[in-house]
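Incident log, support desk, overnight shift.

02:14 A customer reports that sequence design results differ from what the structure should imply. Their input is reproduced verbatim below. On-call engineer (initials T.W.) acknowledged and began investigating.
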């Protein structure tokens, strides 16, 4: 079955990028030196959603460029045998040059991966940083990489693109399978990949979650997860007025306000932009937006921030040396900054019960939007009684999961509106109940529960445990710098968001307080304005003058 390459009309109803993006993408493709050959092997007689999304996306892009050559064959065709394709739908990218195949399609978040993949193939190079290239070039033995992803996971494209870059840069060594867990639940089960993204190389787990580009290459080299990347070569230097550590609502808002005040700012984010908001299924209390997906809200904020400021995603701050200026070392480069804003947010709290860490990614999850789809038709519990737990329980119920809320008290901390929703959706709640142990061999099989009023214990057979019990402030960097913390472990600051160290400020969830998206954004704006005023009229110089 051959589909002729016809750049022309896209049938009505097929996804097309909005006109301005379409032009920009068209211009990018025009500059690509190479043709991009795509081969889809689909299951005969089956018009699955993945094959459909591939066809639609290819047609939409092909309308912008004649460089994409697309052919489709049934999976029992001799071409499939030639390239060792034994199951469909599988999309092969330029198989004469690269060993990259995708079991799935550009649905949801994965559209970003698809576009980047096309561009790197068209370029014929990976655009990897010098440090990443340095590590990747050391690898001599073959690496068969598998990255498990899902269309609803905002972290997945970052990790998928890391693997794509490796496969494009070293095709003689690195082969890649991108595996959508909904398209290939058999492979997800075989690898016990019950959270995404998860990356394997030569069947060894090399990463759970998204990594920076350099950390991915280091994990690929060592064939085990790496958590710290020590740069081996001197990186480029960026000089700014303000370095903002953290790209959540506080950091993004601070970037907008700082630049609009005339300050030159840089936002550095090691993980997913948007922080916790990117993982929130639905936000219903951000003014101006009655109901919006967390990831959509993040995209809006990031797009807005990029109008003004520079964002360095996937880059981790490794060290800050206090001085004038501050020297900020990241996993990729150095920054010299007159001021620093710590908007590092907070990270998931753990239950700290037996089985939790061992079965993490094997049925224990901290992100319903990322991993929920894996549990469709199954039975899970959500632990917690706050806004996050209730929002996640509602989301899981909504996508067809049998969900029970387990809460340690007899009343919810969540807002009344959400509590009512929980009742209306008939989600059962186990009150006064604590999880004592999570059990299972390869995967979660049951939980041991204790009623803290009666001390009765019981077991509940279960497929998944979603832990939503709040967040701990991310203060490792603050502690390293000597920034004072309050008795609850959050950064101690004054009304101008100044910390105890002159020139270092804080904003957002790392300061404690109400921890709402709107309050984090407000704190980010306040901090940026305070920094602007202090830079014009530095309070630390005045303090020195008063002392002398
Ligand atoms: P939270 O409000 O701190 O609630 C944590 C919940 O987990 C509480 O019910 C707590 O129980 C329970 N918990 C804590 N430690 C536990 C443990 N070891 N074992 C069992 N249960 C435990 O956290 P959150 O729900 O993640 O929300 C964090 C912040 O984000 C909040 O300020 C929230 O309002 C905000 N948020 C906002 C939105 C939104 O605006 N749309 C959405 C989600 C979250 P107790 O009640 O007994 O303390």
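02:41 Re-run completed on a clean worker. Output:
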């Amino acid at each position: 079955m051959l589909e002729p390459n016809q750049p022309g009309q896209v049938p009505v109803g097929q996804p097309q990028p909005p006109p301005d993006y379409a032009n920009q993408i068209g211009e990018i493709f025009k500059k690509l030196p190479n043709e991009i050959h795509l081969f889809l092997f689909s299951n005969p007689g089956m018009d699955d959603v993945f094959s459909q999304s591939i066809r639609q996306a290819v047609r939409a892009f092909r309308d912008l460029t004649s460089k994409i050559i697309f052919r489709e064959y049934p999976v029992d065709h001799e071409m499939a045998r030639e390239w060792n394709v034994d199951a469909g739908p599988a999309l092969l990218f330029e198989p004469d040059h690269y060993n990259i195949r995708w079991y799935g399609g550009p649905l949801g978040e994965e559209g970003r991966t698809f576009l980047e993949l096309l561009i790197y193939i068209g370029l014929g190079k990976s655009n990897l940083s010098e440090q990443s290239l340095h590590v990747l070039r050391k690898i001599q033995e073959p690496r068969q990489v598998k990255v498990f992803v899902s269309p609803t996971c905002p972290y997945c494209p970052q990790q998928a693109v890391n693997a794509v870059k490796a496969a494009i840069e070293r095709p003689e060594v690195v082969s890649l399978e991108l595996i959508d867990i909904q398209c290939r639940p058999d492979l997800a089960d075989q690898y016990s990949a019950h959270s995404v993204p998860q990356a394997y190389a030569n069947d060894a787990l090399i990463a759970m979650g998204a990594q920076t580009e350099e950390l991915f290459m280091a994990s690929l080299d060592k064939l085990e997860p790496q958590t710290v990347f020590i740069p081996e070569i001197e990186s480029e230097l960026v000089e700014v007025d303000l370095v903002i550590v953290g790209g959540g609502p506080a950091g993004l808002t601070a970037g907008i306000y700082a630049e609009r005040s005339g300050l030159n700012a840089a936002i550095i984010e090691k993980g997913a932009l948007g922080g916790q908001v990117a993982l929130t299924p639905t936000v219903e209390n951000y003014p101006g937006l009655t109901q919006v997906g967390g990831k959509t809200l993040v995209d809006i904020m990031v797009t807005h921030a990029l109008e003004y400021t520079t964002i360095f995603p996937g880059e981790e701050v490794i060290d800050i040396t206090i001085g004038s200026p501050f020297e900020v070392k990241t996993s990729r480069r150095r920054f010299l900054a007159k001021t620093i804003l710590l908007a590092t947010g907070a990270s998931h709290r753990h239950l700290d019960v037996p089985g939790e860490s061992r079965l993490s990614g094997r049925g224990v999850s901290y992100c319903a939007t990322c991993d929920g789809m894996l549990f469709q038709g199954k039975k899970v519990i959500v632990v917690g009684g706050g806004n996050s737990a209730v929002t996640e329980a509602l989301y899981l119920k909504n996508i067809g999961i049998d969900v029970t809320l387990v809460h340690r008290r007899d009343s919810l901390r969540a807002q009344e509106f959400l509590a009512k929703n929980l009742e209306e959706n008939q989600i059962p709640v186990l009150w006064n109940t604590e999880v004592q142990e999570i059990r299972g061999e390869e995967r979660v099989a049951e939980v041991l529960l204790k009623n803290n009023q009666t001390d009765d214990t019981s077991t509940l057979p279960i497929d998944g445990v979603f832990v939503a019990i709040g967040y701990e402030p991310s203060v490792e960097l603050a502690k390293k710098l000597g920034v004072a913390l309050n008795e609850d472990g959050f950064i101690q600051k004054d009304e101008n968001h100044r910390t105890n160290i002159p020139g270092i400020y804080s904003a957002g969830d790392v300061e404690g307080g109400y921890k709402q998206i709107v309050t984090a954004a407000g704190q980010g704006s306040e901090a940026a304005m305070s920094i602007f005023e202090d830079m014009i009229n530095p309070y630390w110089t005045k303090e020195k003058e008063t002392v002398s």
